[in-house]
From TrEMBL:
InterPro entries: MenA, UbiA_prenyltransferase, UbiA_sf, UBIAD1. This is 1,4-dihydroxy-2-naphthoate octaprenyltransferase. The lineage of its organism: Bacteria, Bacillati, Actinomycetota, Actinomycetes, Mycobacteriales. It comes from Corynebacterium urealyticum (strain ATCC 43042 / DSM 7109). Keywords: Cell membrane, Membrane, Menaquinone biosynthesis, Transferase, Transmembrane, Transmembrane helix. One of its GO terms (biological process) is vitamin K biosynthetic process. It comes from the Bacteria. Pfam families: UbiA. The chain crosses the membrane at residues 20-39, 46-63, 93-111, 118-135, 141-161, 173-192, 230-256, 268-292. The keyword Zinc does not apply. It catalyses: an all-trans-polyprenyl diphosphate + 1,4-dihydroxy-2-naphthoate + H(+) = a 2-demethylmenaquinol + CO2 + diphosphate. NCBIfam families: menA (TIGR00751), PRK06080.1-3 (NF004751). GO terms for cellular component: plasma membrane. Belongs to the MenA family. Type 1 subfamily.
Length: 293
């Protein structure tokens, strides 16, 4: 499909996939909550971490749009608009948008590293490389069933613990618990997206974890990830009772689980992504509130 370059600002915003931004905001809030409990919270550093996380997730969304689009993976999608696959934008422009976002993340990340410790610059470089090679390059790991693992590592462990460390100069067991929970929830958002796309991904050769596990196995894993997050929340409350505030997110996750449990397909699975993400965001806000109690 030839590009028309007629995309509007609203199209570019949709291409940035705002429903995924909770995956970037939640870990920064959770990491800041961990820093608060040790008395090392810093608003300016938290803000820089947020810029890094948001720029990375928007960059990876544009990178996925470009890479999947030129491979033809997005030719038959049931999800949100893709700029490249729809033919609205020249692929090169989408790639440049991804690189621009990675550049913003790099600049903010370097500033944050210089305020804490220089070797975090290397961690940031690995994160940017991971964002591009998820679907980019000749052998993207997202096409090998490693997408959820990467999300767990980068938007769970690295994002939460990195946020905590850049503010407090240490990593705590509580921070690790928060990081694992965020990683599980963030992975479940990605998994729901791939569950929806099993039919088209199977045809185009995009072998995601969902394709490997199959429909039933993917649904079981999704329920395990979200259910495990509830268990982890209760475990966190053993050290700080106020962490039970995180259970306020459970109703959203119960609603999100409906289409998964009932075998919904295609577009009917789209609400799962938004509800799970909003639940994760609410959970992280409650964890931050709990840290001040």
């Amino acid at each position: 499909m030839s590009a028309t370059n007629t995309a509007t600002a609203a199209d570019w915003l949709e291409g940035a996939r705002p429903h995924t931004w909770a995956n970037a905001i939640a870990p920064v809030l959770a990491g800041t909550a961990a820093a608060v409990t040790t008395g090392g919270a810093s608003f300016p550093r938290a803000l820089l971490a947020l810029v890094v996380a948001l720029a990375l997730i928007i960059g990876v969304n544009y990178a996925n749009d470009y890479s999947d689009g030129i491979r033809g993976t997005d030719d038959d999608r049931s999800g949100p608009l893709r700029l490249t696959g729809s033919g609205l934008v020249e692929p090169t422009l989408v790639k440049y948008a991804a690189f621009a976002c990675f550049g913003v993340a790099g600049v903010a990340g370097i500033a944050l590293s210089l305020l804490s410790t220089w070797w975090l610059i290397l961690v940031g470089a690995v994160c940017i490389a991971g964002a591009w090679f998820y679907t980019g390059g000749e052998n993207p790991y997202g096409y090998r069933g490693l997408g959820e693992v990467a999300v767990f590592i980068f938007f769970g462990l690295v994002a939460v613990l990195g946020t905590e460390f850049t503010q407090s100069g240490q990593i705590t067991w509580r921070g690790l618990g928060l990081a694992v929970t965020i990683g599980a929830l963030s992975s479940s958002v990605n998994l729901a997206n791939n569950l929806r796309d099993i039919p088209t991904d199977s045809v185009t050769g995009k072998i995601t974890l969902a394709v490997r596990l199959g429909d039933a196995g993917t649904r079981a894993l999704w329920l395990s990830l979200v259910g495990g997050s509830v268990v982890l929340t209760i475990a966190l409350a053993l050290g700080q009772l106020a962490a039970l505030l995180g259970l306020l997110a459970v109703p959203l996750w119960v609603l999100a689980s409906g289409p998964v449990r009932k075998g919904a397909q295609g577009k009917d699975l789209i609400p799962v992504l938004g509800l799970t993400g909003r639940g994760m965001l609410l959970w992280s806000v409650m964890m931050l509130n709990a840290a001040f109690i």
